[in-house]
Amino acid sequence: MSFKGYAATSRARSALMKQNTRYGGSAERLLRHRLRAMGLKFGSHRRDLPGSPDVAFVDERVAVFCDGDFWHGRNWPSRKRLLARGSNGEYWVSKIQSNRRRDANVSRELKRSGWIVLRLWETDLAGDPEFAIGRVLAALSQGQRASGRR
Fold first, then answer.
1. pLDDT tens profile 24-83
2. Direct distance between the N- and C-terminal alpha carbons of the chain, in angstroms, rounded to an integer
3. Is the residue at 4 inside a domain?
4. Alpha helices per DSSP H over the chain
5. How far apart are CA 69 and CA 20, in angstroms?
6. How far is residue 134's CA from residue 128's CA, in Å, rounded to a whole number?
7. For residue 129, how far is the Cα from the chain centroid?
């Protein structure tokens, strides 16, 4: 999908949105910090894997994505309605729908290759990091069993 022809509603909005980083948001940094503190070894942003997972446990074949609530469309039906009514609504709805389709395709591709895929929402990580860590540990355990490792 091309977003050619769309423009930001204002220079201020454009500058604000450019401050969002592709890699290393606060939720992702929190997750990596906690996992390292537990002594776990993982790769970050592995470009050799579909979607460049934020955290990848290669031996266990577990890929973890820390998805931003806005950019990845958390609570999409209500968010979509709000965005459609706002400035540049058509652009934002198209942009986030495109992100959601890409996320689904990446997850499908990884799963077909035998990977366990976890998608964690940034606010869930920030609000209850221990629950998120528990999900990662459960996936690692499942990945170890699938690979025959203990």
1. 688 999 999 999 999 999 999 999 999 999 999 999 999 999 999 999 999 999 999 999
2. 44
3. no
4. 11-18, 26-37, 76-85, 89-112, 122-127, 129-147
5. 12
6. 10
7. 15
Could you read off the pLDDT of 101-134 as tens digits, one per residue? Answer: 999 999 999 999 999 999 999 999 999 999 999 9
- CATH of residue 106's domain is 3.40.960.10
- Distance (Å, whole) CA 45 – CA 95: 22
Q: Could you tell me if residue 17 is inside a domain?
A: no
* Residues 16, 98, 88, 22, Cα dihedral to 10°: 0
Amino acid found at 136: V
Cα separation, 112 vs 105, in Å, equals 11
The structure's pTM equals: 0.84
Within a domain: residue 94? Answer: yes
Residue-range definition of the domain harbouring residue 72: 23-147
Query: Count of alpha carbons within 13 Å of 15, Cβ hemisphere only?
Result: 3
Structure tokens of 36?
């390292």
| In-domain check, residue 92 | yes
